[in-house]
Amino acid sequence: MSGPGRAFLTEPVAALSLNNKRPTKRSYFSPQEYRAASKQARPTPRKPERTMSKKSKNDKKSKSRLDSDTKRSGIDGQPKIGKSEYEREIFKLQVELVKLQDWVKTTNARIVIIFEGRDAAGKGGMIKRILERVSPRIFRVVALPAPTERQKTQLPAQRYIEQLPAGGEVVIFDRGWYNRAGVEYVMGFCTEEEHREFLRDCPIFEGFLISQGIILLKYWLEVSEKEQHKRFLARIEDPSKRWKLSPMDLESHRRWYDYSRARDAMLAGTDKVASPWYIVPSDDKKRARLNCIAHILTSIPYEEIPYTPPQLPPRQKPRGYVEPKQKRRSVPQVW
Fold it and tell me: Phi/psi class of residue 273: alpha, beta or left (left: φ > 0; alpha: ψ in -120 to 50)?
C-alpha cells in the first residue's frame, strides 16, 4: 500500500486516528493516570525460584518456539496479556462504563459507536465486553440482517437512521451504514457509481448527526491475514463457533485483497476531522478490548455523577402468610 494516511497498519499505538486534528472536550478519565495509580497500588510479589532438569528446560524451550506466534500478537511483538491481569483491568474499565452510563442517563446524551472490520476481527467480543455490566435499556446493540427487497431500494443509511439513539441512549452498531463501502461493494451488491456516491455523501450525513448533538465514534478493528485464517479454522473445528462461519465469511477469506482495497478507499474517503476513524489492532483480542474501551472513555466528556447509596426498607410482616404445600415442578438438580 502507498499514499498518504496508509501507515495505520504498522503504527505502534493502541487506537489511532488517520486524522488526529479533531478538537474534543477532555474526559475526566485518563488511561495514563489510571494505569500508573493501578501499578502503584499493586506491588508485584516475588516469585519463588524453581529448578528444573535439563530435559525440562529443553522441552520448555521447544514449546516456547512453537507457541511464539500465539504468545506474541500485539503491536511490535508485544506479549499477550495474561488472563488474571486482563480480568482485573477489564473490570475497572467496565466500572467506568457504568459511570458513563449514569452520565448519559442524567444528561440525556446521545452516543453512536460504530465497529467495522473484516470477518473474525473481534467485533462481537468487543461489544460483548462493553455491554457486560451496563443496562440494555441504555446501551443498545444494533446488528441488522441482510436488507429486504424493499430496503434495497432505500437510501444506504435509511434503515440505520431509525436505530439512532434517543436522549439517554448509547447505540453500538455491529457494522452500520458502512456495509455499502465494504461487503456490498466487494460482493457486487452495489454499482461503482453507488459506491462513489456513498463515499462522497457519507461525511455529509455524519456531519449532520454531529451537528444535532450526537457523539459519533468510529472504530476499525484491524486483524492480520494470518490471524484471520487461524480464527476461521477455529470456527470450523469448534462446534460452539460454527454458526459464526457463513458463506459470506468464506468468500471474504478468499477475497482478502479485494476487501483491503475497499477498506483503503473507505478510510481515505470518510476519515474527516469531525468524524475520524480510529484503528484498533485486534490480533490480540484482550489487548484490543482494553485499549478500545479506554479510548471510548477518553473520547466522551463524561463526568462521574455523585452516588447516594439507598437505604433498604424493612421487610413487611407475614401477617399470617404460610407457604402452600402444593407440589410444584422443579428443574432437575443435575449439578
Answer: alpha
Residue 82 inside a domain? The answer is yes
pTM value is 0.81
Domain presence at residue 335: no
State the total domains in the chain.
1
Displacement of CA 213 from its chain's centroid (Å)? 23
Evaluate whether residue 265 is within a structural domain: yes
What digits encode the pLDDT tens for the residues 146-160? 999 999 999 999 999
Do the domain assignments include residue 61?
Answer: no
Please, are residues 171 and 140 in contact by the beta-carbon 8 Å criterion? yes
Q: Give the Å distances, CA to CA, from 63 to 77, 200, 233.
A: 18, 51, 21
Q: How far apart (Å, rounded) are the C-alpha atoms in residues 258 and 181?
A: 12
Residue written as grid cell 474534543: 24
Q: What pLDDT was estimated at residue 61?
A: 47
Query: Residues 116, 217: contact at Cβ < 8 Å?
Result: no
pLDDT at 325 > cutoff 60: yes
2: left (phi over 0), alpha (psi -120 to 50) or beta: beta
Higher pLDDT, 8 or 56: 56
Q: State the first-to-last Cα distance of the chain, in angstroms, to the nearest integer.
A: 56
DSSP designation for 117: E
- Please give, one letter per residue, the 3-state secondary structure of 200-221: HHHHHHHHHHHHCCCEEEEEEE
CA dihedral 150, 203, 169, 152 (to 10 degrees): 10
3 state DSSP class of 11: coil
